[in-house]
């Protein structure tokens, strides 16, 4: 990293610390160590209203792990683009993919617009990954043209080979007012045939009580105080983001019901998890 790049990264980090950030709050909830007092205070306050919020975050992360293992294994995918990849922690996409494919022939492009997530991803990759196959780049998923040209500029993605596009636990940070349909349409259009799209988000579907319904509404309001205000969705509202892609079994479901394994939280009661997700293939 040049000294100018380092200075601007440090400036971006300093400027990002006056508000909690979704990347760092999530990192705190899933047991990572790249979060600050402002994020932890926010997380604990949110947990007072939604006691299982940490478990919902871990459920999202587990869903990511299971889908990547399936994509790299059974589905034979060798290239991954991760939108809103977050802070590196246990079970990063390139690690799970390498575990599933002992030939270590997968390539991963991580993208995020959170300065601390980026700096830590770059540091982790520099220490532990293969620079020929793994890279973390700064990109705002709200600017798909720019993001996609940066992804292609890495030269890690072959535009003729199926890609797994991961948008995990991210779309609840894109309110309908910001036109997520336009974004998803762009990304779906730019994937080669046979590509797979992984989407998940937090849901407000079927709350178990009026109190829970209210708490979920309050949670969305509370996130207005972070760098990432958001919106929960039901599966009916969420399904449209897959466009005409074909959902693979078991479809769009509560995340714990997607090919659960022995470690899956809420495996016996998926609808209590408050996370929905699915994987769909481009025809
Ligand atoms: C809850 S975390 C999920 C991280 C990771 N995808 C996972 O599943 O473990 C949400 C991530 O989305 C990122 N994000 C939110 N809005 C974004 C945007 N407009 N462009 C890029 N990343 C964004 C946040 O910075 C954060 O890292």
How are the secondary structure elements laid out?
Layout: H1 3-16, H2 22-29, H3 37-49, H4 53-72, E1 79-83, H5 93-100, E2 107-112, H6 115-128, E3 134-138, H7 144-153, E4 164-168, H8 180-190, E5 196-202, H9 210-222, H10 235-238, E6 246-247, E7 253-254, E8 275-281
Parallel strand pairs: 1-2, 1-4, 2-3, 4-5
Antiparallel strand pairs: 5-8, 6-8, 7-8
Helix pairs in contact: 2-3, 4-5
Bound molecules: S-adenosylmethionine.
What does the model show?
The chain has one domain (3-281): 3-Layer(aba) Sandwich (Rossmann fold), CATH 3.40.50.150. The longest helix is centred in the N-terminal third of the chain and has 20 residues, at 53-72. The radius of gyration is 18 Å and the shape is globular. With 283 residues, it is an alpha/beta fold. The chain is built from ten helices and eight strands. Bound molecules: S-adenosylmethionine. S-adenosylmethionine (SAM) binds at residues 22-23, 26, 60-61, 64, 84-86, 112-114, 117, 140-142, 168-170, 173, 228.
CATH homology-level superfamily: Vaccinia Virus protein VP39
Order of helices and strands: HHHHEHEHEHEHEHHEEE
Q: What is the second-level CATH architecture?
A: 3-Layer(aba) Sandwich
**What's the rounded overall pLDDT mean?**
93
* CATH topology name: Rossmann fold
Task: Provide the descriptors you would attach to this structure in a database record.
single chain, alpha/beta, Rossmann fold, binds S-adenosylmethionine
Summarize it.
It contains ten helices and eight strands. The protein has helices at residues 3-16, 22-29, 37-49, 53-72, 93-100, 115-128, 144-153, 180-190, 210-222, 235-238; strands at 79-83, 107-112, 134-138, 164-168, 196-202, 246-247, 253-254, 275-281. Strands 1, 2, 3, 4, 5, 6, 7 and 8 form an eight-stranded mixed β-sheet that branches.
């Amino acid at each position: 990293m040049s000294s100018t790049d380092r200075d601007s990264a440090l400036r971006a980090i300093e400027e990002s610390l006056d508000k909690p950030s979704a990347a760092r709050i999530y990192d705190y909830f899933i047991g990572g160590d790249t979060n600050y007092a402002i994020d932890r205070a926010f997380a604990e306050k949110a947990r007072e209203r939604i006691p299982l919020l940490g478990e919902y975050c871990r459920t999202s992360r587990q869903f990511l792990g299971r889908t990547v293992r399936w994509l790299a294994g059974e589905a034979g995918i060798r290239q991954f683009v991760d939108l809103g990849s977050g802070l590196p922690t246990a079970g990063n996409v390139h690690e799970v993919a390498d575990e599933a494919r002992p030939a270590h022939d997968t390539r991963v492009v991580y993208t995020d617009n959170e300065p601390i997530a980026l700096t830590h991803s770059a540091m982790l990759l520099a220490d532990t990954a293969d620079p020929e196959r793994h890279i973390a780049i700064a990109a705002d998923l709200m600017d798909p043209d720019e993001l996609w040209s940066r992804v292609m500029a890495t030269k890690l993605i072959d535009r003729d080979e199926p890609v797994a596009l991961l948008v995990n636990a991210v779309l609840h940070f894109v309110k309908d007012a910001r036109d997520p349909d336009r974004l998803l349409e762009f990304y779906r259009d730019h994937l080669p045939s046979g590509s797979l799209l992984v989407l998940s988000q937090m849901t407000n579907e079927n709350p178990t009580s009026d109190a829970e319904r209210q708490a979920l509404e309050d949670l969305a309001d509370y996130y207005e105080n972070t760098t990432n205000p958001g919106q929960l969705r039901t599966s009916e509202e969420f399904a449209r983001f897959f466009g005409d892609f074909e959902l693979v079994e078991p479809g769009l479901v509560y995340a714990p019901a997607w090919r659960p394994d022995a470690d899956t939280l809420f495996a016996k009661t998926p609808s209590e998890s408050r996370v929905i997700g699915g994987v769909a293939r481009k025809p």
